[in-house]
């Protein structure tokens, strides 16, 4: 059975996942500006971070559940 995070764990981790996604997108767009790609504003990066934070948080939540199961010995 695949580990699935509970809604409480997902809700607790989502602000961190969305924030990390937004910050990474913003800095990646700044680096992309060196090769001619458009820059994202902080607001655009935050909006995309809210969207991209969902799957990233889900994957990380599954990883946390797997680690908890391994620690419990199940």
How are the SSEs placed, and which strands pair?
Elements: H1 7-32, H2 42-72
Task: Give an overview in words.
The chain has 74 residues and is mainly alpha-helical. Helices cover 77% and strands 0% of the residues. It starts with 6 loop residues before the first helix and ends with a helix.
**Poorly predicted regions:** none
Largest sheet: none
Average the pLDDT over all residues and give the rounded result.
94
The residue fraction in helices comes out at: over 70%
What characteristic shape results from the CA principal axes?
A: elongated
What does the radius of gyration come to?
A: 16 Å
Provide the succession of SSEs: HH
**Structural class by helix and strand composition:** mainly alpha
β-strand percent reads: under 5%
The counted number of beta strands is 0
Number of helices: 2
Quote the distance from N terminus to C terminus: 12 Å
